[in-house]
Amino acid sequence: MAADQNAKALIAGFRLLFGQKVALLFQWIDDIGRIAMDSGRPVFFNAQAADARCSGLLSPRPEELVPFVQNWSGPRPLRLCGGGTTSRAAVAHNWTLDLQTHFKRLDWQPADQSVWIGAGCRMGEVLDALLPCGRTVAAGLSGLPGLGYVLTGGMGPLSRQVGLAVDQVLEIHGVWGNGSPFALSRTADSDSFEWRGLCGAAPFLGVVSELRMTTQPLLPMWVEQQVVSPDQLPELMLQAEAADSGASLQWHWESSDAVQLLRIADFPWTGAQKITGLHQLPPLRGSAPMPSRSHTEVVGLLAPAVADSWGRLMPELCRVLHHRPHPGCSLACQQLGAATQQVAVEATSFVHRNAEWKPWITAAWTPGDAPGQRLSLAWLEEVWQILEPICPGVHLAQFHDHLPFHDRELEAAFGSWLPELRKLKQRLDPSGTLPTL
Ligand SMILES: Cc1cc2nc3c(=O)[nH]c(=O)nc-3n(C[C@H](O)[C@H](O)[C@H](O)COP(=O)(O)OP(=O)(O)OC[C@H]3O[C@@H](n4cnc5c(N)ncnc54)[C@H](O)[C@@H]3O)c2cc1C
């Protein structure tokens, strides 16, 4: 009853602010709080977010964003949906600020070859829009993620040459959690805590409406997909660590005895296939059949160049990969390093500048299977425990403020920068409009 009254008050408040737009907001949602299957508009790519009984979606226009955040009096935290690929883009009994509908700006700036990207664009859309200009950006392994990819660091096949996506950002516009608008630039603000906070920890501090980033020339790439046995991994990783910055290795391990390998480089070799850019990257999972629709949580780790230590962990890793509680549970890894290591630790909130590898663990379960969920999350923690001695860092590409390891993730992600980041949060988002840090 109380929740109902709250929702009515909220809708009344929103109607007051934005007229009849509230009808538009709800046309995507069915009566049990899911996005309508026939809406033709899958806001939440993440199945868990799509199934969450969230209070609703709110889609202000860019000019309405500042008053929207300033006047927010509903339940906190407010959830944000950029690409909608993470499990926390929509949460039961929380409202989601949908940025996909009205934040689609994509503007090529020929003068300095940069691009303005609105908070509602997916990275694949950015790659496609830049094709006619013969340019590209440092996107990741998939075009699906939205601006969250850039704001949480963002590593991909070009990272060893040009750095992380966040290292390419020139300007950021948006509104802090306290409702004040901001417009910061690398030229004027790169020494400020605010700039550092936005570059890697923005989801805790403010809503980014758009950002401008540098582009790179669109050049051909070569890729090779292979299936190898898990015991070959340490040697292959050792070779990759010694390779040129134009080459990177990524792998995906989901069956107990086979690992899918994806090598990407800016030069040809025997067995490699030419592609014309990141927009043509093949899937990391190769031709492995897609697992059935499942709910997932992903923890991303960061490790320095210690390929030889992986050898010692292989028996344990083989054991846990052999006993996965769900076919969608997996361990995967992508290479960074080289240019990503050239940036000062203090420049951004991505503090693990010595990282060479990002292994990520996916826990999956059938929607609604609570025991299966517990088993899978326990499995994820077991894999994490095995890897922890060589993976001291966390890449906070998704956060888990509903899971017991949220604090552990924050500490491992931000290290000694966390206390200062928390002071910044206290100043810029004192009411906790955005998720807890
Ligand atoms: C298929 C796939 C492939 C991926 N490949 C890579 C990869 O190669 N490299 C890599 O680094 N990561 C990769 N990721 C991880 C992905 O980049 C992150 O999880 C990212 O946070 C997703 O962003 P989103 O906008 O799609 O998600 P959302 O769920 O919409 O948002 C994710 C987080 O970012 C915050 N956020 C989103 N937009 C804004 C905004 N405008 N202002 C403030 N906060 C915002 C949200 O609050 C949320 O906490 C991949 C993910 C998927 C699903």
The largest β sheet comes out as: 8 strands, antiparallel
CATH-scheme architecture of the largest domain: 3-Layer(aba) Sandwich
Determine the fraction of residues in helical runs and give it as a percent range: 25-40%
List cofactors, ions and other ligands: flavin-adenine dinucleotide
Shape: globular
- By DSSP, the count of extended strands is 18
The gyration radius over C-alpha positions equals 21 Å
- Rounded mean pLDDT score: 90
CATH topology of the largest domain: Vanillyl-alcohol Oxidase, Chain A, domain 3
Would you identify the regions where 5 or more consecutive residues have pLDDT less than 50? 1-40
Number of DSSP helical runs: 14
Determine and state the CATH class of the largest domain. Alpha Beta
Strand order of the largest sheet: 14-11-13-12-16-17-15-18
Class inferred from helices and paired strands: alpha+beta
Oligomer category: single chain
Distance between the termini: 31 Å
What percent strand?
Answer: 15-25%
Number of domains: 3
Could you outline the blueprint of secondary structure elements for this entry?
Elements: H1 2-18, H2 21-26, H3 47-51, E1 56-58, H4 65-70, E2 79-81, E3 95-98, E4 106-109, E5 114-118, H5 123-130, E6 135-136, H6 148-151, H7 159-162, E7 169-176, E8 181-185, H8 186-189, H9 193-205, E9 206-214, E10 216-217, E11 221-228, H10 233-242, E12 247-255, E13 258-265, E14 273-275, E15 295-302, H11 307-322, E16 330-335, E17 357-365, H12 370-387, E18 393-395, H13 406-414, H14 418-428
Parallel strand pairs: 1-3, 2-3
Antiparallel strand pairs: 4-5, 5-9, 6-10, 7-8, 7-9, 11-13, 11-14, 12-13, 12-16, 15-17, 15-18, 16-17
Helix pairs in contact: 9-14, 10-11, 11-12
The protein binds flavin-adenine dinucleotide.
Flavin-adenine dinucleotide binds at residues 80-86, 88-89, 99, 119, 140-142, 144-149, 151-156, 202-203, 207-208, 334, 397-399.
